[in-house]
Amino acid sequence: MSYKIGEVYSRGFLDKYFHDDSIYNLKHWIKQYEVDIYKFVEFANLRIQISEEGFNKSGEYNSSTKTITVNQNEPVFRERFTIAHELGHALLQHKGDSSGISNRLLSPYGQETQEIVKKIFNDRNEVDANNFAAEILMPKKVVDDALHSIAKQKNWDVNNVDWRQSDELVMGTAMLMNVSAQSMRFRLQNIGY
User: Fold this and answer.
1) What is the Cα–Cα distance from 111 to 117, expressed in whole angstroms?
2) Angle at CA 83, nearest 5°, toward 82 and 84?
3) Fewer C-beta neighbours within 10 Å, C or N terminus of the chain?
């Protein structure tokens, strides 16, 4: 199966994050059902580096070096989600913890209030980056195609499955798209399954 990027992602999504019309006609960024997240990173002029021993998080984005660092000890599906998540931070121009909140703005408030505001801001950034990662790795059209491919092989109706079949569809679709079953479950709920 071969998709053009402009057939899979909405114009709004591509315009919001990539600001370059040349992306619409690009092909071969989705192999079978798996999105090649590395092509998106390259298109955004970012680098990926593998962490050194002792790196204690899944990943991070460094805006000054335009580098996404991923933990070498993560499984491939987790590494891919981390890359997409950090790409989201880069394209959303998140600058790290509590970026965009000036100390001057918060200075009239007590330390406890400042910490609460910073936590809310950081949580919002993380949610936004997770939503970006889910949408870029699991575009609705590709999820639909993968899900229906598995259902067809099993001779099932995706709209009429029991819980065991549902679980098998989630696992199978996640495997085809090289994402975790957990992220696939969330994505399926978010796109209306």
Assistant:
1) 10
2) 90
3) N
